[in-house]
Specification:
The complex is a heterodimer of chains A (about 375) and B (about 400). Chain A is of the alpha/beta class. Chain A is built from 13 helices and seven strands. A five-stranded parallel beta sheet of chain A has the order 1-2-3-7-6, sandwiched between helices. Chain A has a two-stranded antiparallel sheet with strand order 4-5. In chain B, strands 3-2-4-5-7-6-12 form a seven-stranded mixed beta sheet, sandwiched between helices. In chain B, strands 9-11-10-13-14 form a five-stranded mixed beta sheet, sandwiched between helices. In chain B, strands 1-8 form a two-stranded antiparallel ribbon. In chain B, helix 12 links the parallel strand 10 and strand 11. The longest helix of chain B has 15 residues. Chain B starts with 9 loop residues before the first helix and ends with a helix. The chains are: A alpha/beta (about 375), B alpha/beta (about 400). Chain A: One of its GO terms (cellular component) is mitochondrial matrix.
Chain lengths: ~375, ~400
C-alpha cells in the first residue's frame, strides 16, 4: 500500500528565454520574433504601462470612479495577444486590456468606457475597465471571478462544431483557481476535448490573500495533470517566453483539439484596484523590488535595443506623444455626453417589453416635473 | 419582445404586438370588451379548427366553443374525443417537448442540447430520447455534474452563435447555476452594450412531485423572477409544451421553461401542422363571468377539477393559465378582471415572494378600481416539502380549498 506524496519534492521548472538583463539564455528554444512584431510588442507594453499610470491618477483626482492596473503583468497580455490571431476569441478576467490594445482598441475607446459616455461600445453599462468588443473577439468582462472559464469551454464547443481554425483563450488569476468554476471548466474542457487555452496569471496576490493562503499545491500548473490536461509553467515577465509558449499552446489546442493550461508566474505591482491600498498587507520594499528590478517592460526593452531595433530617442518620443494622447483622451472623454436615457432600458431584452416601456414613461414624467434634479450631461 | 410566427401572415403578427400595449390597457375612457380585442391566438387549435382572423364577437363565440372542449387534457376526455378521422396526433407531454425540440434541431443546425444524461441515456424524463443517435454526440452533449459550469458553457456557446438548450435534471439543481443565470445570462446582453446576445433556453422539471423530498420539490420560478433580462414560461399541456419549446428556442432572449414532474405523462391530441405559442401570452382555459382564477402548471388541473364542482354549485369561474411568468400577460388578465371584478390566484409557489405575490401586486397596481374584493392568493406554505405523502399532499393547494375560496370570494 503506497500513498502518493502530497508533493513531488521538486517544483515544476519554469520556462524562460530572457534573463534579467534581457539576454537570451544559452540553449533556450523559442519562437523567433520579427523586428516589426517585437517593436509593436514593446510599444504596446509601454502604452499599457502609461495608460495605467495616467488613468489611475485620473481616478485619484475623482474624474473616473474606479480603475484597475495591470502593472507588472504587461507581458502576459501583450505577448500572448501577439502570438494569437484575430479569430481567436478571448474571455478575459479583468487584467488583460493589453489584448485589446494589441488588437486595435484605441486610447479614446478605453477612455470612453471608463467615463461611460456615449462613445463607449458598451453604452456606459459596465464599471470602468470592464471592456468588451465583439468586433475584436473580446468578450465583455463580468465582475464575478472565474465565471468566464466555463463560458470559454462553451465558446470552444461552438468553434469545434464549426470546425474553425481558431481557439479560445481565457484568463484567470491565482485566486480565481479556487472557484468551483475553475475546476469544472477544466474538467469539461478535457472531457469535451475543447480547444481552449487556459492562462492563469499567478501574480502572488488575490487582493490581500497571498498564494500561500490560496492553495497548498505547487502553483497551478500541477493541477492540469489532475484533469488530464497538458500544462506548462512560464515566466510571465518574460515577453519572449510568453510569446513562444502561447504560440505553441495555440497550435496544440487547434491541431490536437484539446485544452492547454499555461501558468504565467508574475507579480501584481499595483494595488488590486483603486479601492485597495496594498501597503496595508505587504511590504513597500517587496513592491519596489518587483517594480524596479523585475519589470517585464524594461527586460524586453533591453533585448529589443540590443537587436538595434529601438533607441533612446524613440523612447522619449513615444513616451511624450503617448502622454499627450492619453491626457487628451481623458479630457475629451470627460466632456463627452453620456448615453441617452433610453439606453437605460434598451438591451435588457431584444425589444423593450411593456413593463419596461411603462417604467421609462414614468421616469420621463418624473424628470419633466423635477428637471433640476436630473444630470445635465445625460441627454433625454 | 418580437416573437416569430411561422406560416402566418404578417398582419396577424403585427396585431399581436399591438395587443400588448399597456397604455391602452390602463386608460379607463376606452373600456374595451373582449369582442373588440385584437387577435391573440392566430394559431391552429388542437381540435383541428383553424382560427386565423377573428375580429368580432362571432369569432369569440367560436373560440369559446373550441376552448371548452379542451378545458381539461385528461385521458378520459381525449379518448372520448378521439376517432380515426380526427386530424392531429396523440402524444404525451414529454413527447411533445421532444417533438418541438426535434423540429427546431432539424430546422436550425445551431440548436444543440446540453445537460446531464441527455445523450445516450435519453434524459432523466426521456425528453431527449433518441436525439443523440440522430444528431450525434456533439449536438446532444452529455456534461459532467456541474450545473454552474454547463450553464456557463451554454452561455458562452450562445454568445458565439449557437442556440443551446440547457437541461437541469431537476430545477432545484439550477440553484447551483444561479450565478451564471443571474450575473451572465440575464445581464451580458445589457452590459456588453447589445454586442453579445444569449439566445439560450434553460429548462427542466420542477414543482412538488410524489414524495421526492424537499430538495427535489422546489419551485424556482419565485427565485428567478427578479432577474432582469430573462423570460420565464411554464407549460402545462402537450400543446403548449411543444409550442412554448419552439418559441423559446427561436427567441433571442434567454428563456427559462418550467416543466412539472407530474405532468410529463399527460396525453393530448395536437396538430400535425407546425405551430408556435406566444411566449408572453396567457391561455384562456375556461371563460366565465363570476371570478377570475389565475393559475399555471400543475395547479391548472386542480383548478379545473374545482371548476367542475363550482359549476355544479352554480358558479361560472373564468380560468386563465398565465403561462408567461415573466412578464405577466396583463392584457388578458386585465380584461378578465374588468369583467369579473374578483381574482383568485392558485399557485404552487410558497406564500412569501412567490409568483402569486408578484401577480397580486401587479393586479392591484394596475386594476385596483375594477376589484370588488381583495385578491385571494392560494399558495403552498412557507415550509420545505416533507417526504411523508400525507403531509406533502397538504402543502399543495387542493381543489376543495379552491372551491371554498371561490365561495367566500363570491359572497
Amino acid at each position: 500500500m503506497r500513498f502518493l506524496s502530497e508533493s513531488t519534492g521538486m517544483r515544476i521548472p519554469c520556462y524562460s528565454v530572457l534573463d534579467g538583463n534581457g539576454e537570451i539564455i544559452v540553449g533556450s528554444d523559442y519562437e523567433q520574433l520579427s523586428e516589426e512584431i517585437a517593436v509593436k510588442m514593446y510599444t504596446s507594453m509601454v502604452t499599457l504601462q502609461m495608460m495605467d499610470t495616467i488613468f489611475y491618477e485620473a481616478q485619484r483626482q475623482g474624474r473616473i470612479s474606479f480603475y484597475m492596473t495591470s502593472t507588472g503583468e504587461e507581458a502576459i497580455s501583450i505577448a500572448a495577444a501577439a502570438a494569437l490571431t484575430a479569430d481567436d476569441i478571448i474571455l478575459p478576467q479583468y487584467r488583460e486590456p493589453g489584448i485589446l490594445l494589441w488588437r486595435g482598441f484605441t486610447i479614446e475607446e478605453f477612455a470612453s468606457q471608463c467615463f461611460g459616455n456615449k462613445d463607449d461600445c458598451g453604452k456606459g453599462r459596465q464599471m470602468p475597465n470592464h471592456y468588451g468588443s465583439k468586433k475584436l473577439n473580446f468578450v465583455t468582462i463580468s465582475s464575478p471571478i472565474a465565471t468566464q472559464l466555463p463560458q470559454a469551454v462553451g465558446v470552444a464547443y461552438s468553434l469545434k462544431m464549426d470546425k474553425k481554425d481558431a481557439c479560445v483563450v481565457t484568463y484567470t488569476g491565482d485566486g480565481g483557481t479556487s472557484e468551483g468554476d475553475f475546476h469544472a471548466a477544466l474538467n469539461f474542457a478535457a472531457v469535451t476535448e475543447a480547444p481552449v487555452v487556459f492562462i492563469c496569471r499567478n501574480n502572488g496576490w488575490a487582493i490581500s490573500t497571498n498564494i500561500s493562503e490560496q492553495f497548498r499545491s505547487d502553483g497551478i500548473v500541477v493541477r492540469g495533470r489532475a484533469y488530464g490536461i497538458r500544462s506548462i509553467r512560464v515566466d510571465g515577465n518574460d515577453a519572449l517566453a510568453v510569446y513562444s509558449a502561447i504560440h505553441t499552446a495555440r497550435e496544440m489546442a487547434i491541431s490536437e483539439q484539446m485544452p492547454v493550461l499555461v501558468e504565467a508566474l508574475s507579480y501584481r505591482v499595483g494595488h488590486h484596484s483603486t479601492s485597495d491600498d496594498s501597503t496595508k498587507y505587504r511590504s513597500v520594499d517587496e513592491i519596489e523590488y518587483w517594480k524596479k528590478v523585475r519589470d517585464p517592460v524594461n527586460r524586453f526593452r533591453k533585448w529589443v535595443e540590443r537587436n538595434g531595433w529601438w533607441s533612446e530617442e524613440e523612447e522619449s518620443e513615444l513616451r511624450s506623444s503617448m502622454k499627450k494622447q492619453l491626457l487628451q483622451a481623458i479630457q475629451v472623454a470627460e466632456k463627452t455626453e453620456k448615453p441617452p436615457l433610453k439606453e437605460l432600458f434598451s438591451d435588457v431584452y431584444d425589444v423593450p417589453p411593456p413593463n419596461l416601456r411603462e417604467q421609462e414613461k414614468q421616469l420621463r414624467e418624473t424628470i419633466i416635473r423635477y428637471p433640476q434634479d436630473y444630470p445635465s450631461d445625460v441627454p433625454l | 419582445m418580437a416573437t416569430i410566427f411561422q406560416g402566418l401572415r404578417g398582419g396577424a403578427a403585427a396585431a399581436l404586438t399591438n395587443s400588448i400595449d399597456s397604455k391602452k390597457l390602463l386608460s379607463r375612457s376606452t373600456r374595451r370588451s373582449l369582442s373588440e380585442r385584437k387577435v391573440s391566438f392566430p394559431v391552429v387549435r388542437s381540435d383541428g379548427s383553424v382560427n386565423l382572423n377573428p375580429g368580432g364577437s362571432n369569432a369569440r363565440a367560436r373560440r369559446v366553443d373550441q376552448l371548452i372542449t379542451n378545458a381539461v387534457a385528461t385521458k378520459a376526455d381525449s379518448s372520448a374525443a378521439s376517432s380515426t378521422s380526427k386530424p392531429g396526433h396523440e402524444l404525451l407531454l414529454f413527447e411533445a417537448l421532444r417533438e418541438g425540440l426535434e423540429e427546431e434541431m432539424d430546422r436550425d443546425p445551431h440548436v444543440c442540447v446540453m445537460g446531464e444524461d441527455v445523450g445516450h441515456y435519453g434524459g432523466s424524463y426521456k425528453v431527449t430520447r433518441g436525439l443523440a443517435v440522430k444528431y450525434g454526440d456533439l449536438r446532444v452533449l452529455d456534461t459532467p455534474i456541474a450545473e454552474n459550469s454547463f450553464t456557463g458553457m451554454g452561455i458562452g456557446a450562445a454568445m458565439t452563435g449557437l442556440r443551446p438548450i440547457v437541461e437541469g435534471m431537476n430545477m432545484g439543481f439550477l440553484l447551483l447555476a444561479f450565478n451564471q443565470i443571474s450575473n451572465n445570462c440575464g445581464m451580458l446582453h445589457y452590459t456588453s452594450g447589445g454586442q453579445f446576445t444569449i439566445p439560450v433556453v434553460i429548462r427542466g422539471p420542477g414543482g412538488v412531485g410524489r414524495q421526492l423530498g424537499a430538495e427535489h420539490s422546489q419551485r424556482l420560478e419565485s427565485y428567478f423572477q427578479s432577474i432582469p433580462g430573462i423570460q420565464m414560461v411554464a407549460c402545462s399541456t402537450p400543446y403548449n409544451a411543444k409550442g412554448l419549446m419552439k418559441a423559446a428556442i427561436r427567441s433571442e432572449n434567454p428563456v427559462i421553461l418550467f416543466e412539472h414532474v407530474l405532468l410529463y405523462n399527460l396525453k393530448e391530441r395536437i396538430p400535425d401542422e407546425e405551430y408556435i405559442c406566444n411566449l408572453e401570452e396567457a391561455e384562456m382555459v375556461r371563460p366565465g363571468e363570476h371570478v377570475t382564477i389565475l393559475t399555471y402548471s400543475r395547479m391548472r388541473y386542480h383548478v379545473m377539477q374545482a371548476a367542475k364542482t363550482l359549476v355544479n354549485k352554480g358558479y361560472d369561474p373564468e380560468v386563465i393559465d398565465i403561462r408567461s411568468l415573466k412578464p405577466f400577460d396583463l392584457h388578458m388578465i386585465g380584461n378578465s378582471v374588468k369583467k369579473t371584478h374578483r381574482v383568485l390566484i392558485v399557485e404552487e409557489c410558497m406564500r412569501t415572494g412567490g409568483i402569486g405575490a408578484s401577480l397580486t401586486a401587479a393586479i392591484t397596481e394596475n386594476f385596483h378600481d375594477y376589484l370588488d374584493a381583495p385578491i385571494v392568493c392560494l399558495s403552498s406554505q412557507d415550509v420545505p416539502t416533507p417526504y411523508a405523502g400525507t403531509l406533502e399532499e397538504w402543502t399543495v393547494v387542493q381543489p376543495a380549498q379552491i372551491v371554498t375560496a371561490v365561495e367566500q370570494l363570491c359572497q
